[in-house]
Amino acid sequence: MKTTPGHRDDVVAILLSGVDGLREAGCDLYVVSVSTTDDVTIWVSEVWQSKEHHAASLQLPETRAAIGKAMPMLTGEFTGQELTVAGGLGV
Amino acid sequence: MKTTPGHRDDVVAILLSGVDGLREAGCDLYVVSVSTTDDVTIWVSEVWQSKEHHAASLQLPETRAAIGKAMPMLTGEFTGQELTVAGGLGV
């Protein structure tokens, strides 16, 4: 996702604010990263126990509040890729 | 990366074959995933302690052997994105 200029760190803080509840919501991995080549691009990589766990997490009041708070600082330019984890280290 | 038809699982197996040595090489996270919408696309998400750790890992004999083994099964179509991790769960 891309933020409006000057708001990347605010959005990163919002994205990281809900980390404590993620594991019990069925999330195995949640990595918030920023571009090394611009000041507005944020990448979030997530691994969930199931599609349903992820979908349910989006309905949680705290998730909805965080999305509402971040939205005005985002350009609306989103890309996403759904994948199936085959294995590795740390997953 | 994309594999030639029918070789995705072979390449996934090669990518996962070196997982045991990754942590001592300075790798914190290594996730091999496959597309849910085609049979030839593989994504690898990695978090390294430093750029230098990653660069050094590419010179290891076992890494070079794995790359040599996988190469004939790849189309050559690679994309990559270098990022800085801001935080999260599992990193």
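Strands of chain B lie at 27-35, 42-48, 83-89.
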